[in-house]
Amino acid sequence: MRLRLQSLRLDPKLLAIGAGGGLLSGLLGVGGGIVMVPLLVLWAGYAQRDAHALSLGAIIPISIAGIATYGVAGEVRYGTAIALAAGSIVGARIGAGWLARIDERLLKVVFGTFLVGIAVLMGARG
To answer: What is the tens place of the pLDDT at every residue in 77-121?
Structure first.
């Protein structure tokens, strides 16, 4: 019982990473993984694959909080959101399957390249 209760203790680093990911997700409309995955790897010491899996697990509560907040303000376009969600469910299933099989080094390179590419595109569009 003691071991089980100890495992429920919240790590302050994880709370900080979650708060930062949630804040930026709500503010910028980015997936929390863009923030959480690098911090889980670089600051909290998780392996790349584990960081991606943890981030995927955090998406649902982050999304619910964002939908509730934006929904109350009348800012959610439900038809568009449903279409995005339908595509995302299919894509996430495929991506999670790849995540389970991809080499960890290649995963780091792909994720880093994605982040740099998005930063360049966003900066170019000013």
So the answer is: 989 989 988 998 999 899 999 999 999 999 999 999 999 998 999
What is the distance of C-alpha 95 from the center of its chain?
13
> Tokens in use for 75?
């800012």
Say if residues 33 and 18 touch (Cβ distance below 8 Å).
Answer: no
pLDDT of residue 1: 47
Q: Please report, for the chain, how many H helices and E strands are present, in that order.
A: 6, 0
pLDDT tens for residues 7-45? 567 889 999 998 888 888 888 777 678 889 999 999 999
Long-range contacts of 48-55 (CB under 8 A, 24+ apart): 48/104, 48/107, 48/108, 48/111, 49/99, 49/100, 49/102, 49/104, 49/107, 52/99, 52/107, 52/111, 53/99, 55/21, 55/31
